[in-house]
Amino acid sequence: MTFRDQFYKNYYKTQASRYADASEANQIANSEKTLSIEILPLMPSDKEVSILELACGHGTLLGLLQKHGYTNITGVDISEDQVEKSKQLGVNYVECGDVQSFLSESQEKYDVILGVDIIEHFTKSELLRLLETIKERLNPGGKVVFRTPNCDAPLSTTFCYGDFTHEICLNYFSAEQVMLTMGFTSIRIRGSHVGVSNPIKNLFRSVLWVQMKLWYKMVLFASGRSSKKVLFTPNLIISAEKQDAIS
User: Which of 137, 174, 185, 228 could pair covalently with 170 via S-S, beta carbons 3.0-4.6 A apart?
Assistant: First the structure.
């Protein structure tokens, strides 16, 4: 048994739900709010596009997409208890399996492939192989969207190494480098959503956030480096496209 087999078998119980400080319904609502800001604006307007989510967990994003009218959606996750949890939550179009094997064995083509909090779980070689396979499974002009921890974020170890199964951590430059190397086009890298649900706390947080970013930009300036393309959010949102086929 590999360490991944051991950890992913009960991943929902041992990691995904471990830091919960709210009811399950509130957790899902908070996740949907974040994903509505980070992922939904990147989705095509055509609600009939074929969408695959890799490592979909218990299906929060898939459920959100369905609520917004997307019907041709599929998910795959390696964790048995995550898939079982998705069914309990009413998300029934999730398959249990390894994402690389699923993509390699499938003959389906997709318009959009999503990967929220997944690419950090692969080694460098595995990630390059995964991206190559994703490109093969995308239709010409198809889009890939990832969310992954940002190693330039303050206290980035909280996000990069808060999960034993994480293998790599990217910043703006390395994320862009990887996508360019693998032949993707229209590459855009954004900061993730930052906020807390309590409006008074969030106002205070917003003030501190502006001051903190200014401080870190000053640190970069003092060390003779540019803050251009340096993002401070906990996660990166990476989107890119497969080049249209040449006619």
Answer: 174
| pLDDT at res. 82 | 82
Which alpha helices (DSSP H) does the chain contain, by range?
A: 3-8, 11, 24-38, 60-67, 80-88, 99-105, 124-137, 157-160, 172-181, 199-222
Q: Where are the chain's structural domains?
A: 3-194+230-241
Would you call 68 exposed, middle or buried from its count of C-beta atoms within 10 A (0-12, 13-18, 19+)? exposed
Q: Phi/psi class of residue 161: alpha, beta or left (left: φ > 0; alpha: ψ in -120 to 50)?
A: alpha
Q: Which two tokens stand for residue 51?
A: 């969408």
DSSP string, 205-235: HHHHHHHHHHHHHHHHHHTT---TT---SSE
Give domain 3-194+230-241's CATH number out of 3.50.50.60, 3.30.390.50, 3.10.310.10, 3.40.50.150: 3.40.50.150
Question: 27-69, pLDDT tens digit by residue?
Answer: 788 899 999 999 999 999 999 999 999 999 889 999 999 999 9
Instruction: Give the pLDDT score at 247.
Output: 43
Q: Which residue has the tokens 């390699």?
A: 104
Distance CA(103)–CA(195), nearest Å, equals: 34
DSSP 28: H
Half-sphere exposure of 167 (CA within 13 A, CB side): 12
> Using CA atoms, how far apart are residues 172 and 237, in angstroms rounded to an integer?
10
User: Between 145 and 16, where is the model more confident?
Assistant: 145
This prediction's pTM: 0.91
Per-residue pLDDT at 87: 84
- Do the Cβ atoms of 234 and 153 come closer than 8 Å? yes
